[in-house]
Amino acid sequence: MDFQNFSKLAKVARGEIPAEMVFRGGKVVNVFTGEIIETSVAVTNGTIVGIGDQYVGETEIDLAGKYLCPGFIDGHIHLESTMVTPAELVEQAVKCGTTTYIVDPHEAANVSGADGIDYILHETENVPANVFVMMPSCVPSLPFEDNGCIFDAAEMKNYINNPRVLGLGEVMDYVGTVTAAPMMVEKLALFDGMPKDGHAPGLSGNELNAYVLAGITNDHECSNFDEVMEKRRLGMHIHIREGSAARNLEPIVRGILQTKQDISGFSFCTDDKHIEDIHTEGHIDHCIRKAIACGMQPVDAIRMATIHTAEHYHLHHRLGAIAPGLQADFVALDDLETVAVSRVFHKGVDVSSFHAQPKLPMDSPLRQTVHSLPVQPEQLNLSVGESCAVIRVIPNEIITGHKTAKLPQENGLFAADSTYSKIAVVERHHNTGKVGVGAVSGFNIRGGAIASTVAHDSHNLSVIGDNDADMLLAIEHLRDIGGGYTLVENGKILHTVPLPIMGLMSDAGFDTVQAELSAMIAKAHEMGVPEGVSPLTLLSFLALPVIPALRITPRGLFDVEQMKFIGE
Amino acid sequence: MDFQNFSKLAKVARGEIPAEMVFRGGKVVNVFTGEIIETSVAVTNGTIVGIGDQYVGETEIDLAGKYLCPGFIDGHIHLESTMVTPAELVEQAVKCGTTTYIVDPHEAANVSGADGIDYILHETENVPANVFVMMPSCVPSLPFEDNGCIFDAAEMKNYINNPRVLGLGEVMDYVGTVTAAPMMVEKLALFDGMPKDGHAPGLSGNELNAYVLAGITNDHECSNFDEVMEKRRLGMHIHIREGSAARNLEPIVRGILQTKQDISGFSFCTDDKHIEDIHTEGHIDHCIRKAIACGMQPVDAIRMATIHTAEHYHLHHRLGAIAPGLQADFVALDDLETVAVSRVFHKGVDVSSFHAQPKLPMDSPLRQTVHSLPVQPEQLNLSVGESCAVIRVIPNEIITGHKTAKLPQENGLFAADSTYSKIAVVERHHNTGKVGVGAVSGFNIRGGAIASTVAHDSHNLSVIGDNDADMLLAIEHLRDIGGGYTLVENGKILHTVPLPIMGLMSDAGFDTVQAELSAMIAKAHEMGVPEGVSPLTLLSFLALPVIPALRITPRGLFDVEQMKFIGE
To answer: What ipTM goes with this model?
Structure first.
C-alpha cells in the first residue's frame, strides 16, 4: 500500500471524492469466496480502492457482459526460453491476460552471471507487468558443468534487499542440498523464511524428506499425481507446469478432481515456453482453459492462476485478487469457459496493445557470448563397442530414458542413421575446445542437422544430426553469427534464427522470430522428427544434467541417476 | 530452519544416522492433503526431520491407536483476560493441545505501556509454547480515553525487529483508520506487508472498503455469516471467535458448511477467555469439538486450528503442520471426533504436565497500578429526566443495545433496582477523580455490587450494583488491595479475587483464582444475574467505547455508533 497517498485513496473508498476510474458492470470473479458477482470496481492511482456499484468514476469503463478476473500469474518461468526479449514476451503474454511473472533468470546467469540477471531486471522495469525474480541457485547447475559464469551466495547478497527479488530460484542440485554441501547451505540460509523454488523430478522417500527439510517450498517438476501427492503430504506447493516441452497439467488436474484435493496448494506455471507456442495456444490462460476442459470449475482454475500463486510468494497483499488495496491488474473475459481474453489492465491502464521496443545496444557485451574454438571433424567421432548408452527421447516429456543398444557403426565409429542420431555438445563460453558426443534414439532426423546455443542450463552449442558434415556446418554457422538456432539439410543452411542476446534471445521482433522458427520446426518434422517431439525444445534440454535419466555435456554422456559420467 | 545444524538433521532425514526420537504408530493428520495416514515422525533438535516408518529413533514414542495433529494455534488472544500469569495460561491450555498463541497484549499496554508488553514477552520466553506478539495499535483505544499509557508508533519501532513480533494488533480505531488520521497511518505504514489484525464489528460498505484498503488483513468480530461473507469477499481472513463472552463459532461454521465455502480463509481464536472456562470446556480444542458438532469434518476443523492460522501470520515455514523442517509441536488425541487430548509435545518434548512458577517480584512496579482518589457518595449520583439512555445487556454477546427508558428515581436521581442496575467507572491510573455513572438493563443484580479493575481497554475501576453503599464498599476494597474483582452483598465483602499484576492478573495460582472466581460467579447468578450473562466478563466490557452500541467511561455514557458522549 502506498501510504503516501492513503489519505486520498481512503476518501475515494469512503465515497467522498470520485475515483479516477470505475470498472462498471463486469461479473467479478471473487477468488476468496468463489462467487461471481456483478459489481463495480473503483480504482485510483493504479490501486483498487473499493468494490461496489455505489462508486463514481471520473472515467467509467464499461464491462457489461464481461467477466473480470485478477491478472494471471506465471508461477515459474525462465523468460529467456521464449527466445524474444523480456518486453516482447510481455507484449505477447499480456494479450493472454498475464500480468505477473515469477522469473528465474538462470539461463541468463549461466551465460553472463550477474550481468545477465541485471539485464532481465532492467528490461522488465518499465513493462506493463509485475516481474519478480528468484535468485538462480544452481549456476552452474552442477559443479563440473562448463557454463559461462558462477553465481554464488556472495553475489546473491547484492540482491537480497531488492523488492523484486522474492527468494531462491529452483534448487536443482538436490544432492548438494540433501548432503548439506556448504555452498548450497549458504544459499539456503540466505533466504531463510522466504520462498525457495524446488526442482525435484521423481525425488521421493528419505531424499525428498531431506529436500523439504532444507526449506524448499514448491516443485514444478511433477509429471504424475502420485508424485504430486507425496510432495503435497510434506507441504510442498505444486506448480502445475504446462510449457512447450513438459506438459503435466492434465494428469495433475484430473488427480485433483478425482481425489477432491484442496486446491489451495496448487498453481500454474509454464517453466519454459517458446514464444510461438504462447502466440498460438496462449500462456496461463491456456492452463486455465485446459484445466476447465479436464472438468475443473472455472473459478477454481482462475484461483490457481492468481491468488494461490500470490499467496505462495507472499505477494497477496499486493496482487492476485480484486480487493481494496491491491494493484488494479485485471483481465476482462468475453466468456468464462473459453477464457476468451477481451481486455487486460495493469495498474488500471488498458495494456492489451502494449508494443515492446527492443533496446539492447549493439555494443553490449551480452551480444558477444559465443567463445568456442573451431570444431575439427575428428572431434565428432564416437568409438562404439557391442553395447552403448543411448539417450532415449520420450515424446511430450523432457525427462529422457537411458537405454543401451548396439549402434550402427563404420570402422568402430558410430555411424548415425534415422533411428540413432548423433548429438554433440561444444563448450562455447571459454574456448576450452571440449566436445562431448553421444547417440540419441527417437529424434529420427534424416539428411541433416539442427544446432542450438540454447542448451539448458550451461547453454553450450548443441547439435544433433545424421551426418557429421551437416553437423559441422551448423556448428560453424552458429559460431559465425554469435548464437541461435540453425537447420542444415544436405550441406545447405535452410533456416536460421539468430539469438544474439547471450545466444538465447532475439531482438529482431516476434514476427521475424516466429516465422523463421515455424519454418524450421516444420522442416525438422519433414526431415523425420516425430510429432510429439518439439525439435528445438527437446534439443535444448538434452544437455541438462539435472533431469533424469541420461544427458550429454561437453565432457561426455552423464548418468543423472548415478550422478556420474558414463565410463567413470 | 536451524541451518547451523542442518548437516546433522539432513543425515537423519536421509536415514544415515538415527533420529533423537521417533513418534511411532500414530494416525497422522495431514493438514495439506486432508488425509489421515498411519506413519512415523522422526524428530531431532526439536525439529521434524522426516515422515515415514523407515526412520529409527534413539528414543521411540509409542502412539499406537492415537491421532497425531499439529499443535493448536490461538489466532488472537489477550492473555491478560485469563486473569492468571501467561505461564499459568500455558500450563492450562497446553493440556488442551495449544502450543502457539498470537497475542495482542493491549490490556497490559493500556495499564503499563511498554513495561506491560515487556512483561508479557519476558514471561513467555521460556514457556513450552510459541508466543508471538502483535503490537497493540490503539492504546488508548480512543484519543479521549482515560487509560494508563500511550503506546505510539515511535515506541513500536523498538519492537519491529523482534522475531516474536509479527505485525500490528487489532485496529479498533476504524474511524482513525478510514479517515487516515496521521497517528494511525504512521502505525499502519510501519507494518506494511505484515499481518494487521482487524476489529471491525458490523463494519460494512464504503467504510469496510476503506478499512481493508488500509491493509487490515483479518477480523475476529463477526457474529453472523452475512458479515463473514462481506469481509471474505474483500479478502479478509476470518478468525472465528469462541471466548468467554463472545461465542460466534456456531453461526459461522454452519454458514461455511451450508455454502460450502473454501475454508482456507478461516481459523479459530478465543480473543478473551477466562482461565476457568479454559479449564472447564477447553481452549482451541473446544473450538474444534464445537465445529465438529456443527457437522464439520474433523480434519477441516483441525486445519482451521493449525495451518490456516500459521499461513496467515507467515509462520507456516515453522509451524502449523507435521512436515520436515517444522517445529515438532504435536497433539496426540485418543479420539478424533471428541478431540480427546492425550499428550502434547513442544519441540518434541512432552509438556502435558508443565507446571508454571509465578515469578513477578513483589517490588515490581507492575504491582502498583491502582491510582485513584477515594470516591465520595455524591459522585455516584445520576440525575435523570423522563427518558434516559440505558445500556442494554444482550445475553451471550459483548455488543450492547442502546435503549432509552424512564428510569426509577428518587428526588430526580436514578434509584437502581433489579431491572435497572447502576454502573460507575472510576479512573484509576492518574488520580484524576473522574467518575462516570449510567444505567444498565439485563444485568439484574439484587442486594449488592460487583467491581473490577479489569475493564477493557482502559482498565479503569468499574462497579455495577443496585445500591450505592455496596458499590462504594466494592470500590474502596479494590483500591485497598491494588486491583482485582470483588463482590459485595448487603455491606459485606463476600468474595474477592486479587489481581495484583496491573490490576489484571493474579499470580496466586490457578486453583486459588479458579475457586474464588467460581464462587463469585455462582453468587452473582444467585443475586440475579441471568444465565447467559457472564457477570465478570460482561462487566469488563461495558467500559469499552469501541464496541457497539452504548458504553460507559469515566467521562460518562458514550454512543459508539455516533462516536460521541451522550449529551454532547
So the answer is: 0.91
